[in-house]
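User: I'm writing a tutorial on reading structure tokens. Could you give me a worked example: one chain, its sequence, then its tokens, then a sentence or two explaining what the tokens reveal?
Assistant: Sure. Here is the example chain.
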Amino acid sequence: MQQYSTTECTELMGSWNMVTDELRSIQMCESIGWLVDNIQTFALIAMMYPLIAFKLQSFDIAPNKTYDGIYFWWNSVLSVYSGISLIGMYTGYQTVVTRSGFDFIDMMRHPDWFVESNTITLIFVLSKIAEFGDTVLILLRGRRLRFIQWYHHLLTYIYCYVSCVSTTLSRNSSPAIFCSVNLFVHTIMYGWYAASTAGYRSPAWVKHAISAIQTTQMFFGCWVIATVNHDDMWRTSSPIEFYMVSGMYGSYVLLFGNMLVSNIIGTGGTVRRKRD
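And here are its predicted structure tokens:
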């Protein structure tokens, strides 16, 4: 993965004929530099997360309500954060559209939206670390750790890091799109988790609808990948990122699709266990 100095990165972005102003380009370059400089820390977190999760599971903690208060506020904060960040992403999108006149497809194939929203996307990467706490609290409350839980948290975290530091190679706004859709889903999902923890019992169709939204997100991600890579530019310019995101969303389609079907038709055993 090639690294660039702030000056080189800014000059490279300038050669893309972006409509985003130079200040935003410099900020993006500084964000990339910070992520690259702290790669050891991010790698350590990625390794520690599954180790801690499986260690907690080995304690076989009985179901309890000891941490329900923390779990409620944890999910509430993540829901509110996601909603506010989603507004910020939309604002960045409108800013670039106003300057460039891009339609949505053009927007995906140019880096402007990602660069314009660089602060939000950087915080988004860090928020994936906070979501690891969701797994810890689930285990402390005596709930079973499912494969889909730790796998998608860990892989998404790793991809978010890789996508941000690969921006100078991939030259598109796919991370901004993935970020925006994920924020939309999490605003709803974490809000529902918080409400459920507080005692609200929603109709079964609400749970199914949330699972359907999550699954739709994964199919949409596959469509974005195919659309952005229409000329094979993404795959050839940043193959590590491209194959990683393709494999990630492909596996998510299978996992979340299975979860949706299992929830609806009543199969899958542990898939139907309530998180609250």
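What the tokens reveal: The chain has one domain: 6-272. Residues 6-272 form one domain.
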